[in-house]
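Take one record.
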Amino acid sequence: MSEITDVILDPHVEALMQQYQDALPLLKKLDKKAFEKLKKALDDQVIYVTAIEHRVKTEKSLRGKLLLKGSKYHDITDITDLVGIRVITFYSDDVDKVAAISKKLFEVDWKDSVDKRKLHQLTSFGYNSLHFICRLRTNEPGMRDIRFEIQMRTALQHVWSTIEHDTGYKGNVKILDEHRRQFSRLAGMLELMDDEFSRLRNEISEYRRNVQSMVESGKLDDVLLTTDSFKTYLERGPFDKLNQRIASVNQAEIYPASLMGFLPLLESFGFETLGDVDTFIKENQEDAYQLALAQIAMTDLDILAENVGLQNLCLVYVLKHGKGREGLKFVYDTLNGEQESNEVLVDMILEQAKNLSFWGDLKNM
């Protein structure tokens, strides 16, 4: 079979191809403007997408299309996908957000737009995508005459579309019923996964809002200790009072430092809720202050990290619970990574802790 470019086209198709060539500079300009406008709006609204693609239809692709149905078009402006934008989202409800933004940015031609998500029968599954045919809102000569297409779909819908195209599922060759049934099963699974991922994200978002509300109201015993809840808890500054007390010894400044690295330590202590962490602070803050005092009182340190209070709380906790040298080393290995200098730090803490009030009660050192 000859290449599409070698096929002799009828005069009408040739005329359309000439119109395409004449309009190509305008098509490229429209492509750039529409893409940049939509991309900026998505960024401004903080809508994360897995991809946003755009293109001007190639001459080869257009020739192939016109060979099949050139008589359908009276003028090049009747073709709605000369310029195309495809937005691939992570979640199905984000498709609706992209659609809402597109409706505000562009003029949507509802007559030629299609929501393929609504075309399936109740017992059928398949390609789901939202297609808008749009015009740019502009007074620039010729620009409004050309429509462009925006396809919006999820990543899983995009996978289905690619597989469907690759296997020739919608081709002219009839496929076996068992293969058709398998396609339907897989399509149904992808559709279910899309719905479940969106539902799970919404549930997680709702859980995070509930966690924040419970933390703000002080219901810490009801909040499980997780990465999210610990971040929310830290926003309350639970270690600020202890930090400031320690810093006042040398009138030191406190510089910011992440406290998230302490979460594995707190979990290793068996803490399950934020209430456990709160109790841990209340029960050990005086001894943690005394231990910090033993470390810095005879120095001229005037800058301290924001983790000074929590670190001393952890050191005191392992000593009080009889974990001795091994426990102290575990603290430093967790925070600093395993290194020889941690042994030196352990020796220093053991020496300084001998002057603390709880030292005499410790066993198995």
